[in-house]
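User: I'll paste a sequence; please echo it back and then give the predicted structure.

Assistant: Echoing your sequence first, then the prediction.
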Amino acid sequence: MTKRALLVSTANPYPVVRDGCQRLVDDYVDAMFPSHELYFLHVTKDDWSPLTLFHEGRPADTNVDLDRLLPYDFEFVMFVGFKDRDFTRRLTSQRPSFCYTDRFPHPDVPAGMFRGILSHRSAGRDEDILLVGGSFDETVFFRDRKDEALVLAVGRIHPDKNQLELVTRYRETIFEPYGLPLYLAGGVADLSYYREVQRFVDGIGVISSIVDASQPFADANWCTARQIAELCNRARLYVSASAKESFSLAMIEAMACGTTCVVNGDYWGFAESQLRPNVYGNITAKRGSVVELAAEALRDEVRIDGSEWARRYSLRELRETVLRFIDERI
């Protein structure tokens, strides 16, 4: 009989993926554990109480609690993020549990509660900590270069992603001298900020995946993974104006497609020496404007193909390591 496993997170990828954490959850549920039948439990952000149990992308139980979960006899539970609350504490005491977090130690992740920790960064060495980055689906994101007719920015419209810096001077800095429109791929996460960004979206120099501005929260505003991969392969540059990223999955996906990535922030989830040769711009702190960096890259004909390096973050490369780590601890 096929073994079952449960993934628990506040990041719900259904019905559409809206950010990198949801993409990771979706990929882990769909492809990381091929020998298990995966279920996803969506929990509340405040106290991590259960909301909905999903199976194969569809709600299986909308009135779920611990007593209703235990009969599934999950071989293990994987938390993506964590808060130490009554429900999560009881669940970890009942089933072998693991936690995926951006760093460890982490104030929300108690030491000693899990069989193992998966993390981007750790302050020390421990046999029960597996250092991993984010991951991408290599069957979707791969080199298939097209006409390089645009500059691409991927992410939810939100001050953290800093799209306003991109659009404010994009026309005169890049579109007019180089003829490459900026494509903003992502839906709205902050309405007031979107209204500011939207003033610069003209459908010519700056284009958005949000087709109807009167419907900013429509599911159709969010691009699928395959749509993003197609855009990456058509992009001359991928640009990110974020001042800080623990691990930029959108950047790695673009890199996997062979797109030159221009960044300007603190990418603290990566080893500087490894990331540095594979991007253009600043990776330890924000300096100046990413639009100016993109213009420099175009002026100097900078082309950086980091697709081979990015392969280490593919599901195929990570799967065996993650499965072995879990199997040795259950």
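DSSP finds twelve helices and 16 strands in the chain. The chain has a mean pLDDT of 97.
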